[in-house]
Design brief:
This protein is mainly α. It has a single domain, classed as Arc Repressor Mutant, subunit A (Orthogonal Bundle). Helix content is 73%, strand content 7%. The chain has helices at residues 2-30, 36-50, 57-64, 68-80, 102-123, 128-150; strands at residues 84-88, 96-100. Helix 2 (36-50) crosses helix 5. Keywords: DNA-binding, Transcription, Transcription regulation. GO terms for molecular function: DNA binding; DNA-binding transcription factor activity.
Length: 151
């Protein structure tokens, strides 16, 4: 058990680091003006629109676990780069909604392709039963992180 604990810890640290590095490298070829953090913000804005979720600045900030000020700074930069647009809500002029541009959609598609390729690579080596066990284990890991954040 102790050996498994150390090996699993090392694996998680290395995999997390490797995913971030590889994700950054895959992005650099097509969208070198974006950081990974900016890309994840774009992804959140695209997902909010695609899933008809709340795309107000406050909701996006909460989903990204950043302050309103941090989000404002990031969105301003991404607006200047042509990736996001801010618009006042038609019904509630106090609310600001954030929308992706076509340029943002293109970056999000490159990012999504990276994730699809990563998942496909994992799944091709696992049986259905092994994939179910992995999904259950990663679900527990996700719950752990969410619990830590909400605490």
């Amino acid at each position: 058990m102790k050996g498994n604990r150390a090996e699993l810890n090392r694996f998680l640290v290395e995999v997390f680091d490797e995913i971030l590095k590889t994700e950054e490298e895959s992005l650099a070829g097509s969208f070198s003006d974006l950081s990974l953090r900016e890309l994840h913000l774009i992804e959140e804005v695209c997902r909010a629109e695609d899933e008809a979720r709340d795309n107000r600045a406050t909701a996006i900030a909460a989903a990204q676990r950043v302050t309103a000020g941090t989000l404002t700074t990031a969105v301003s930069l991404l607006e200047r780069k042509g990736y996001l647009e801010r618009r006042r809500d038609e019904r509630d002029r106090r609310a600001v909604r954030i929308w992706p541009t076509e340029k943002a959609r293109a970056a999000d598609q490159v990012h999504a392709a990276f994730h699809r390729e990563m998942v496909d690579e994992i799944l091709k080596t696992l049986s259905d039963q092994e994939a179910q066990v992995l999904v259950r284990a990663l679900g527990s890991l996700t719950a752990f992180f969410r619990e830590k954040y909400e605490a």
